[in-house]
Design a protein that fits this description.
The protein has a single domain, classed as Metallo-beta-lactamase, Chain A. It contains 10 helices and 15 strands. The strands form 3 sheets. A 7-stranded mixed β-sheet has the order 1-2-3-4-5-6-7, with helices on one face. Strands 8-9-10-11-14-15 form a 6-stranded mixed β-sheet. Strands 12-13 form a two-stranded antiparallel ribbon. β1 and β2 form a beta hairpin. This is hydroxyacylglutathione hydrolase. Pathway: Secondary metabolite metabolism; methylglyoxal degradation; (R)-lactate from methylglyoxal: step 2/2.
Length: 290
């Protein structure tokens, strides 16, 4: 009898140990260790953007509207789904109303099916009409020039093709907030996979037309490699070198390097500073082999 109790006790201990290991695994999945979660609030409109880490270097975003009169609209949005578990954690129990998709790469849509299953038919999933075959559970297609009323303001769809042919960005016009996907990063821009260098160059030119105070929530943490390249390309720029060190310190402290501002990128980002397509193409080729 004593032996039986001992065996049951050992079995329970082993089961609890497995549960602890499983919970530890889930926590690691939900809260990636490479970055902390941060919420940015636009004071003028009340729009809030929660930035969280996913996968190896993806950023995900949960957006809560401020409303036309500054009050909470009660509407919750997400931009892309690099992973389902971190998104669900970042929602903190809130219902997800809208999912905005910038392009169809797997690390931006990996959580779409889980989100659709979890939230049901009430979830609206927007995405570029040119990439419908790559976006699971899509409910609404949009194209450059379209405007959507979401989170208490007008969201403009911008053509940022180059990285992919149908890549789009979402610009919240009242709050001056841009979700560019993989078209632009702090001190960098996206690789050109499907489009041309000219497509990517023109995409950045469209972004450059936005107000300089625009907050840019880029979709990956590439600051270290981008900073190294930017300093290499412009080695005598002391202000750029100082900014690169600032970004390095943010990464070391596990702080998100987004949002950046358009004004800051116009000052330091070598790809936005390129005045000709030829110079942009030269820089992009150099970065591809850096």
């Amino acid at each position: 009898m004593h032996a039986a109790r001992t065996m049951r006790s050992r079995g329970l201990c082993a089961q609890r140990a497995r549960l602890r290991r499983n919970m530890h695994s889930i926590q690691q999945e939900v809260l990636p260790s490479w970055v902390s979660t941060r919420t940015t609030r636009v004071d003028e409109t009340g729009l809030e953007v929660a930035t969280f880490g996913a996968r190896q270097d993806n950023y995900g975003f949960v957006v809560r509207g401020g409303g036309n009169g500054g009050g909470d609209t009660g509407e919750t949005l997400a931009v892309d789904t690099p992973e389902w578990a971190p998104l669900l954690e970042a929602l903190h129990g809130s219902k997800l109303d809208v999912l905005l998709t910038t392009h169809g790469h797997h690390d931006h849509v990996a959580g779409h099916e889980d989100a659709a299953k979890y939230f049901g038919s009430g979830l609206r999933i927007y995405g570029p009409e040119e990439e419908t075959n790559h976006i699971p559970k899509l409910t609404d297609t949009v194209k450059p020039g379209d405007e959507i009323e979401l989170a208490g303001e007008t969201v403009r769809v911008i053509n940022v093709s180059g990285h992919t042919l149908g890549h789009i960005a979402y610009y919240f016009t009242r709050s001056k907030v841009l979700f560019p996907g993989d078209s632009i990063f702090p001190l960098g821009c996206g690789r050109v996979f499907e489009g041309t260098f000219e497509d990517s160059y023109e995409a950045l030119n469209r972004i450059k037309e936005l107000p300089h105070e625009t907050l840019i929530f880029a979709a990956h943490e590439y600051a270290l490699s981008n900073a190294a390249f930017a300093v290499w390309a412009d080695p005598n720029n002391a202000d750029l070198a100082a900014h690169a060190e600032f970004l390095k310190a943010q990464v070391a402290a596990k702080e998100p390097t987004v949002p950046t501002t358009l004004g800051q990128e116009l000052r330091f980002n070598p790809f936005l500073r390129a005045e000709t397509l030829e110079r942009f193409s030269e820089l992009r080729k150099q970065k591809d082999n850096f």
